[in-house]
Amino acid sequence: MSKSKFIPLLLCGLIAGFAQAADTHDSEAQLVKSLQSINDNHLDSALNQVDKLLHTNPNFRLAQLVKGDLLMARAGALNHFGDAANASNDQIDDLRDEARVRLNRILSPSDTKLVPRFLWQLDAEQKYVLVVDTSRSTLFVYQNVNGEPRYVTDFYVTIGKLGTKKVSEGDQRTPIGVYFIASDLSKTQLPDMYGSGAFPLSYPNEWDEKNNHTGKGIWLHGTPSDTYSRPPKASNGCVVLTNEDLNKLAPYLQIGVTPVIIASQIDPSTDADQSDHAALMHEIEQWRKDWSSLDTNAYLKHYSASFANDNNMNYAAWAKQKQLVNSGKSWIKVGISNVSVFAYPDQPNIVVVNFEQDYNSNNLANKMKKRQYWIKQNNTWQIIYEGAA
Asked: How far is residue 193 CA from its own chain's centroid?
């Protein structure tokens, strides 16, 4: 079969630009090399290349399908992409989707010099931050370099069967939001379906709970031993990597520290984001000063009428408690440090702020890690949630 018939069937219009494909994505790059050889009508060379790929990753089903198509093309028996005798249409569609996503990752890479708009501020303890772009089935790793995020690497990932915006248990969707690595589960603690390990995320977070989002068990995890990778939408809501990639990712993760931001898509930071960041930091500092000054009325103006804390105390109850507590104080000193700030995906004008709080007064002293959600309303930043981190 000539390439003129074989190529469009296999690549669904994505062949243009193969010569510029990067060599930095391991298995994806090897697959692209094979497809480039197909484009050049070197089918024997393409078959040798995909054989090498399968020698390394024998359970890479997309590569198996390409090899099968190559063999059928040489025999002149290929009628359409994935012309396998016993494969279901759904299976072929899944592999076609994986081919499209993987090739797009190589042929149309993200500009790694741009900083995602979600990363307003990292604290010194957060050595890395993860950002998942669900529209590209890609997990990006950024390193904290003197407070500035710098791109390190990225990985192909699978998300929920029904996409994103999880709202209820069992809806087979991946949540959108700001989460943290909660724990580390080794392979020996898990069934084979989780592959080489798992890193549970802090879903549901405080914002999820405030919005009555239910469910649990959203993890970063690997694939079963008989599967190299899964289609772009194939999990029950988790973010799934190949075992090889999960093992590469693991050294970047800090339990209870590493942020994981899951977004519908990644947009770059803008001047407006930087302006909002500066305004927010001013309000946080003023909140600290007003609290320390024992000016309770000024302090309470930093809280939204929709405020709730981690004990589900609303604004009215919170205001009453603070007025009572502060009436018994002769002096207060409040210090904050190690501040991190993340804009919340798909939620305009909401940010998550984490910091270490050092509180001292005439009759109480404590230190704690605190989390606040701030909302911008009428061009003013106010606290809509506050609690222990």
From this structure: 21
